[in-house]
Each structure stands twice: as structure tokens, then as C-alpha cells.
């Protein structure tokens, strides 16, 4: 790795952006790598852009502001076009980075034959039960060891580095303008074309601040089910919906899905937020969005 572009996208997150920039300022920079910092503002109405432009990090900076809100996939795509380095570190403005994150990513690239590296995300939420689920060792990339091949669905733009040349042959899907699916869609196609070249680096860490509560997050999943899910490849849609005998019942019977969703939410709120209960709530919320679209 000879150069690295750090791409940050944000929308009305000035209070988080400042914390992120402070953490980048304190990060250890590899002495033999050129690092640039890029911020794409998705038409914020706060002072996010001026904060970035005036903040001194000691790095070369670029910024761009859309004149109208276009969504995360377009903001991410603009960041890619502005990047001049051979690798891109993708971050969202509501995270802070660990001091050694750049060094750890450098090691990962130099020690393995990878084209993409997913890092670790620690979640903070006022919903303590949901926070425990998000950080569970049984969930997502938390199940993986250092430099192990990473399943495509866990390559998240909240913390990952990707070789820039990959985007020439596997561009982002700019149809995904609503919430969710843009990184999943890209990572799936990346996986199909470059099997076993996506790895995990558990020592490249960011902390995600103020993650929405489970209830707020479900609204986003319903939006995903109504919109972007149907724009994914059929094979990927099936994987998202985890189609089997039981989930097919949820998919084809709106009332059963809604009943299951509400029942599990009752257990979550009043009895216990067991791991499998939360997983059912998340899945049935996506399917709930699918049913809303087909009405």
C-alpha cells in the first residue's frame, strides 16, 4: 500500500464529524504511505462542510457538497471519484477511529493477498439490550479471526478498505437511493468475482456512536424491504430473506409475519431480548416492508 484515501460521507452530523476528525488527527500515520482525507456532504443544513474545511488534520483534504440530498450510495460514489490513492478507507461521519487503525490496515494489506479488508465496529446505543446484540461475539464479523476470509455481507462501508481499481469493474449500484443494500450489493458482486480475497482485520477498529435503538432501526429495515431490496439481484434477495420453509411462510402470509413480528417485539420489550428473538424481529421487519410495497 503506497497511498490511502480516507472517504467520509455525512449528512447533518457535525457533532459526530468533529469527534471523528479529532480521532483521525490522533491516529498514527504510517511513515511510508501518502494519506488524503475526503469528505462528501449530502446537502447538510448544519455546518458539517465548513467544520471539515476548517479543521486542521495535517493531511491533504478534499471536500464536496451536493446541492440536493442524493443518499449514501451517491455520496460514497462521489468520494470514490475524488480519491487519488490506490486504496480507499471508507468511514461514516458518526464513528471514531482507533489510534492504530491505519497501521493495522497497512499490515493486513501487506501480509495478505486481499483486495478488500473489513474492520471491526464497536457499537454504542442507548438501547442497552440492542447494543449487547450488536457487539455479540456470535454476530457478524465478530465471529471471525484475524485475516480470516470474511463473508461478503459483513464488508461494511462504516469501516473497510478497498482497492480503488476494483470499482472500475464493479461499480456501485446507483439505483439504490433509499436506505440499505448498497454495500451488500457491491460486496456480493465483489465476492462472485474475487472469491476469498475479502478478509477481516479485527485490530482495525472504529466505534459507532449513538446507534439507533432497535425500534428506530426497524423503521429503516422496513424502508429497505419496501425499496432497495427489490433492486438487488434475485439470488441476493433470496439470501437476504434467508428463504426456507419457515421464512417462506412469513413472505407469503402477511398476517403470520406481522403476528410473529409483534409477538417477538413483545418478548423483547417485556421479557428478554434473546439473540434469536432479535434476529427474527429484524428479518420479519424487512419482510414487513416487502408486504407494504406489494399492497
Quick tags:
295 residues; alpha/beta; Spore Coat Polysaccharide Biosynthesis Protein SpsA, Chain A; 2 domains; eight-stranded mixed sheet; 8 strands; globular
With helices defined by DSSP (H or I, 4 residues minimum), what is the helix count? 12
Output the CATH homologous superfamily of the largest domain.
Spore Coat Polysaccharide Biosynthesis Protein SpsA, Chain A
Distance between the termini: 50 Å
CATH class of the largest domain: Alpha Beta
Largest sheet: 8 strands, mixed
Helical coverage, percent range: 40-55%
The low-pLDDT segments are none
Q: Mean of the pLDDT scores? A: 94
Number of strands: 8
Q: Give the spatial strand order of the biggest sheet.
A: 3-2-1-4-7-6-8-5
Q: What is the total domain count? A: 2
Query: Radius of gyration, rounded?
Result: 19 Å
- In percent, how much strand structure appears in the residues? 15-25%
- Name the CATH architecture of the largest domain: Alpha-Beta Complex
Name the overall outline: globular
Structural class: alpha/beta
Tell me which oligomeric state these chains represent. Answer: single chain
SSE string, helices as H and strands as E: EHEHEHEEHEHEHHEHHHHH
CATH topology-level fold name of the largest domain: Spore Coat Polysaccharide Biosynthesis Protein SpsA, Chain A
Summed up:
The protein is of the alpha/beta class and 295 residues long. It contains 12 helices and 8 strands. The chain folds into 2 domains: 3-211, Spore Coat Polysaccharide Biosynthesis Protein SpsA, Chain A (Alpha-Beta Complex); 214-294, no CATH class.
Amino acid at each position: 500500500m503506497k497511498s490511502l484515501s480516507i472517504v467520509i460521507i455525512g449528512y447533518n452530523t457535525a457533532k459526530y464529524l468533529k469527534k471523528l476528525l479529532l480521532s483521525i488527527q490522533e491516529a498514527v500515520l504510517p511513515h511510508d504511505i501518502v494519506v488524503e482525507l475526503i469528505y462528501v456532504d449530502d446537502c447538510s443544513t448544519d455546518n458539517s462542510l465548513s467544520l471539515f474545511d476548517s479543521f486542521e488534520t495535517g493531511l491533504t483534504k478534499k471536500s464536496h457538497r451536493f446541492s440536493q440530498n442524493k443518499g449514501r450510495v451517491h455520496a460514497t460514489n462521489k468520494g470514490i471519484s475524488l480519491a487519488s490513492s490506490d486504496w480507499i478507507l471508507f468511514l461514516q461521519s458518526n464513528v471514531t477511529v482507533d489510534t492504530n487503525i491505519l497501521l493495522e490496515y497497512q499490515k493486513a494489506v501487506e501480509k495478505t493477498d486481499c483486495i478488500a479488508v473489513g474492520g471491526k465496529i464497536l457499537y454504542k446505543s442507548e438501547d442497552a439490550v440492542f447494543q449487547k446484540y450488536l457487539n455479540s461475539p456470535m454476530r457478524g464479523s465478530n465471529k471471525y479471526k484475524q485475516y480470516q476470509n470474511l463473508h461478503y455481507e459483513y464488508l461494511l462501508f462504516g469501516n473497510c478498505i478497498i482497492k480503488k481499481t476494483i470499482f472500475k469493474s464493479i461499480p456501485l449500484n446507483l439505483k439504490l437511493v433509499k436506505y440499505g443494500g448498497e454495500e451488500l450489493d457491491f460486496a456480493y458482486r465483489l465476492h462472485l468475482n474475487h472469491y476469498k480475497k475479502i478478509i477481516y482485520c479485527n485490530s482495525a477498529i472504529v466505534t459507532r456512536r449513538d446507534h439507533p435503538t432497535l425500534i428506530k432501526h426497524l423503521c429503516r429495515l422496513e424502508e429497505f424491504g419496501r425499496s432497495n431490496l427489490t433492486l438487488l439481484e434475485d439470488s441476493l434477495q433470496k439470501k437476504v430473506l434467508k428463504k426456507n420453509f419457515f421464512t417462506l411462510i412469513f413472505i407469503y402470509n402477511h398476517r403470520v409475519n406481522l403476528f410473529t413480528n409483534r409477538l417477538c417485539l413483545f418478548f423483547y420489550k417485556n421479557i428478554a431480548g434473546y439473540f434469536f428473538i432479535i434476529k427474527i424481529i429484524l428479518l420479519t421487519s424487512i419482510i414487513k416492508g416487502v408486504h407494504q410495497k406489494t399492497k
